[in-house]
User: Fold this.
Amino acid sequence: MRWTRTTRRRAGATLLAGAALGAMTFGGAVVTGCKARFGNMLSKSDEIRLGQQAARDIERKNRVEDDPAINARMQRIASRVFPHAARDFDAPFTIKVIDSKDVNAFALPGGPIYFYRGLIDLAESDDEIAAVLGHEAAHITRHHSAKQISDAQGKSVLLDILTQGRGGAVQTLAGLGLVLDQLSYSRGDESESDEVGFRYFTAAGYDPAAMASFFRKMKAKSKGSGGPEWLSSHPVTDQRIRRSEQRAAEYTRQRSALR
Ligand SMILES: [Zn+2]
Assistant:
């Protein structure tokens, strides 16, 4: 889930754009309205390289939590959830905590996942943390960011052709970041991550009801002023909550039928 659209998040996005697009031409105004999907054009090693570049940038700009108790807790949960994600896409998954009260979490291509302290504080149980972790890992295994970068890259190639060559409309890297700022996971990506992520954290033995209960908590919190940053690009709709509840009920029914 890209749980936010803050400038901190953008630091990574700009870097990704620069690395992925190189010196290609890009025109924000032209591509903004383009809806074409190009699929994932990045190789596994591309994804890992881009994700790690962005991770370095994020860790330069944010304080990574060094509280051993929090880190041990997160590693413990991750060590149960990640093996199930790795069956779909064997990336070098990592989990780190950013020392911030923001209620937020996000995943980078190829493995790195970050949770903000604020989200861990809001989640009352390991189960709810595992549910968010499963969702984030699913963004990675389903290559959602990589597809978006590929889209942007594809659009830039299109624009390149339209403007007849690379010398035609070279934009600055700042412009690239600006365009990537407008990218966010689609509703389809979000529901796919809910569904796939559900599989990961329940296979790890966590409470199937935890995803819905965390979503309800996020929704309740969003009623106040501002609300969690996570919600700005990850609206927790009633439909998402309902689907998570149904999935949990189905899962429990199937399990009890097997007994
Ligand atoms: Zn998401």
Observations:
- Confidence is low (pLDDT under 50) at residues 4-35, 164-183.
- The longest helix spans residues 238-258.
- The CA atoms of residues 66 and 97 lie 8 Å apart.
